[in-house]
Design goal:
The two termini are 38 Å apart. α1 crosses α2 and α1 runs parallel beside α3. Among the domains are: 175 residues, no CATH class; 35 residues, no CATH class. By secondary structure, the protein is α+β, with helices and mostly antiparallel strands. 12% of the residues lie in helices and 21% in strands.
């Protein structure tokens, strides 16, 4: 199995799922992609709450008289844009607002950050203007900071190289580090490759090689070519059975199905046509047909009908589909064919509590990570 590493050198895990999966199996959240890349920081592999951090080194260049209020307003606008996107794309929960703002404001003072008020505003507007469920828009890519290699950091957006290298993924602080060139040996846990490349390791190998990211194809480009790794760009899909070119995703009423272009991210394929997702009590499917439910609902695998998603408290049963966790991610879920054997929601640890990033039954609270064996909302100003 291949392990792909992006961003800050953390391997992409099965927990980092696309919110477009909606109710088809894994609890939406993002990593994966429910937040922009500049919000990411190295974190424990098991951490399943939102990957929020490098953005939060916001320095408001040319601020008005009250920079804290301005920073809070910018952070609040960004939070609102993300929660609206997450809600429209299959989940009604993003994370505690006040904790997000605490995280954001604490990062405003992070030294050297390349994120300023203008950047944050552009990112927010791009998310609002994106019709698909994509949140990692071009405007939200991690900007370069001003810190030189060797300077203390907590997030890549503080560094000129856009990379804060840490001894372990669950360390709070690191040093601004160099980027690995395509073809160079890399450690998927702590290294980062140059832009448009990732660290690929095979099987249990501790080291990998920096590999150029697959090309993002534009509308009209040939796709589905055997032996060529490439993907159609956001909003496009490969017409495998027809032109074998990247075409726009199917709009409402467009033909869909095996070999045909997939539907736009907020639609589902029903009876060979791109349709609005089914609502409460309507028929749905958890198999490859992909007939998933509308936002706020999930497909009950046994009844094959859409039911309202409920959120369980710590210690209560969960199944990552119709019953999700109020905080943290559902642990211990098993599958027996199409049947789901429920797991349990993790114990939520308070800020400052001792933690284990590999714990099977506990998580830190929203927007906190287990860093240096302690649950904490990262503070980049503490890294020297």
């Amino acid at each position: 199995m291949n392990t792909e590493t992006r961003g800050q050198g953390v391997a992409i895990t099965v927990e980092e799922v696309d919110i477009r999966m909606k109710s088809r199996g894994i609890e939406p959240k993002p990593a994966v992609a429910v937040e922009a890349s500049f919000l990411r920081t190295p974190r424990p592999m098991r951490k399943a709450t939102l990957l929020v951090l490098p953005f939060l080194g916001l320095l408001l260049a040319g601020c008005p008289d009250d920079p804290v209020s301005s920073a809070e307003a910018s952070c609040a606008s960004y939070y609102d844009a993300l929660t609206a996107k997450v809600s429209s794309c299959g989940s009604s929960r993003f994370g505690d607002r006040s904790r997000f703002l605490t995280l954001c404001k604490s990062a405003v003072a992070s030294p050297g950050s390349g994120v300023n008020e203008s950047f944050l505003s552009s990112c927010t507007n791009s998310i609002k203007g994106e019709a698909s469920c994509e949140t990692e828009t071009t405007a939200c890519k991690t900007p370069a900071g001003t810190l030189a290699e060797g300077a203390g950091c907590s997030a890549g957006s503080q560094c000129g190289t856009k990379f804060c290298q840490k001894a372990t993924p669950d360390a709070l602080c690191g040093k601004c580090g160099p980027l690995k060139a395509v073809g160079a040996e890399c450690d998927p846990k702590v290294d980062r490759c140059v832009d448009n490349a990732y660290c690929e390791s095979v099987g249990a190998a501790p080291k990998g090689t920096c590999k150029a990211s697959p090309a993002r194809l534009k509308e009209g480009d040939a796709c589905g070519v055997s032996g060529v790794e490439s993907f159609c760009d956001t909003g496009l899909t490969c017409d495998y059975a027809g032109t074998k070119k990247c075409v726009k995703e199917g709009a409402l009423g467009a033909a869909c199905g095996t070999g045909k272009p997939s539907c736009a991210s907020k639609l589902t394929c029903k009876d060979g046509k791109c349709s609005e997702p089914p609502g409460e009590g309507e028929a749905c499917s958890t198999d490859a047909s992909g007939l998933s439910c509308k936002s706020g609902f999930a497909c009950d695998a046994e009844a094959k009908k859409c039911v309202k998603i409920v959120y369980a408290k710590p210690g209560e049963p969960c199944d990552i589909t119709k019953t999700r966790c109020e905080k943290g991610s559902c642990r211990g879920v098993k599958y027996e064919g199409s049947k789901i054997i429920p797991g349990k929601c993790p114990t939520i640890l308070a800020d400052g509590a001792a933690c284990d990033p590999q714990s099977p039954d506990s998580d830190c609270d929203d927007f906190a990570n287990c860093l240096d064996k302690k649950c904490q909302i990262p503070d980049g100003s503490s890294c020297k």
